[in-house]
Write a structure and sequence with these properties.
89 residues, 5 helices
């Protein structure tokens, strides 16, 4: 039974990762492929961080802040964590 639960959790995680990647590709369709690949790799390293970032950006947008400013404010907040991911191998 425990193995079945673990398998289902793993499948849910894989589906979630796939959906995140598809959303990223859709939103970042104008980015060069190299940059898109780099962003995908970062999301793969710490998906929870980027989920938190997305939620905070959405909250600021709902509060009336323009998209660009909301994204910049949140990305500044998490700049050190993102830089740490960039330096990881």
């Amino acid at each position: 039974m425990r193995l079945l639960v673990e398998e289902n959790l793993a499948r849910c995680f894989m589906i979630k990762q796939f959906l995140i990647k598809q959303a990223l590709k859709y939103k970042a369709k104008d980015l060069p492929k190299e940059q898109l690949a780099m962003i995908e790799a970062l999301v793969d390293k710490d998906p929870k961080l980027f989920e938190t970032i997305a939620k905070e950006i959405e909250a600021l947008k709902k509060a009336g802040k323009p998209d660009m400013y909301a994204a910049l404010d949140v990305m500044k907040k998490y700049q050190k964590q993102i830089q740490a991911l960039l330096t990881q191998k």
